[in-house]
Amino acid sequence: MPAIELTTPAALPADWRDILALTKPRVMYLVVFTGLCGMLAAPGVLPLALGFTAILCIALGAGACGALNQWYEADIDAKMRRTANRPLPAGRMDRQSALHFGVGLGVFSVVLMGIATNWLAAALLTASILFYVLIYTVWLKPRTAQNIVIGGAAGAFPPLIGWVAATGHVSALPLLLFAIIFLWTPPHFWALSLFVRSDYAAAGIPMLPVVAGVPSTRRQIFLYSLPMAASAVLPWLLGLTGPIYGGSAAVLGFVFVVLAGRVLANRATDPAQMAPEKKLFAFSVFYLFALFAVLVADRWLAV
Predict the structure, then answer these.
(1) Is the C-alpha dihedral spanning 60, 116, 152, 192 positive or negative?
(2) Helix axis angle, 172-195 relative to 214-237, nearest 10°?
(3) What is the mean pLDDT of the chain?
(4) Which of 201, 210, 273, 292 is the most exposed place for a label (fewest CB within 10 A)?
């Protein structure tokens, strides 16, 4: 009787869901939304086709960042439970395909942005992609616990890009929107990292809870929430927005600081007992959506 040869089935080829997963769509939603709000808050109105194209370019640029991040961090993703099933570490796609996809998507988004709107917006989109990939992913993330602090600039570009796509120039309000997201990123991401810190430790990523400990991270979350909340009301105090935005920013900022205070008061180190951290993380996403939504409402209701 001939011997039965056992073989391991080959990994399934990537399908459209894996291509989509490379772009990190859950992150892209917030990027696209803040970019759209930056465009809608700008003076004047882009023609619908050009406005849609500008937002599409921001989305494609964000997708390029996600793909290139996963290409570079495939080995790291394989070591973390929450990322181990991504297309590359799961073996459904090879790294070279992800690299080509990310580069092609990034180049296409920049060229299309320049042709459809203006080259200043295209230059800012280029800067955001390069900053995320080279400064944050390659340089900062594996080397310093301040990776999120400095790297937060990458995620702060979209409203600035949206504004410039509509106007062709930079002014005070989009710079303040950039600052708000820049200051929002550390408490938002550190809240998440507190209850998934074992993943980062296993992958050797020097996130703040891994390097400085849980109590220090909680203090930093609270301290960063204060200038973030203050910066959010600055557009109103400087007369760049109306009372709808100003009142909403004050209330949202107050709630954020209260939740950050509860994180500071928590003494638990077991992720299962980190309800305040999980609540702050969830609210931080709502906070940014709500803040930018009322910015647009304030602009259009005042017309």
Answers:
(1) negative
(2) 160
(3) 93
(4) 273
Distance CA 206, CA 226 (A): 24
Strands (E), the chain: none
Residue that the structure tokens 């959506």 belong to: 289
Q: How far apart are CA 147 and CA 237, in angstroms?
A: 31
12: left (phi over 0), alpha (psi -120 to 50) or beta: beta
Q: How far apart are CA 199 and CA 209, in angstroms?
A: 11
Cα separations in angstroms, 54 against 110, 175, 200, 247: 10, 19, 35, 30
The one-character DSSP state at 71 is H
pLDDT in tens, 43-101: 988 999 999 999 999 999 999 999 999 999 999 999 998 899 999 999 999 999 999 99
Instruction: Give the burial class of 17: count Cβ atoms within 10 A of its Cβ; 0-12 exposed, 13-18 middle, 19 or more buried.
Output: exposed
Render pLDDT for 219-238 as a digit per residue (tens, 0 to 9).
Answer: 999 999 999 999 999 999 99
Q: Residue 301 and residue 303: Cα distance in Å, rounded?
A: 5
The b-or-e profile of 101-121 (16+ CB within 10 A means b, else e) is bbbebbeebbebbbebbbebb
Q: Give the DSSP H/E element, type plus range, for residue 178.
A: helix 172-195
Task: Supply the DSSP symbol for 239.
Answer: T
Cα of 271 vs its chain's centroid, Å: 23
Give me 259's structure tokens: 């939740």
- Which of helix, strand or coil describes residue 213? coil
Q: Put residue 253 in one of left, alpha, beta given phi > 0 → left and psi -120 to 50 → alpha.
A: alpha
Kindly compute the dihedral angle of the four CA atoms of residues 64, 67, 71, 74, in this order, to the nearest 10 degrees: 150
Tokens 């074992």 sit at which residue? 198
Those residues whose C-beta lies under 8 Å from the C-beta of residue 212, and which sit 6 or more positions away, are: 145, 220
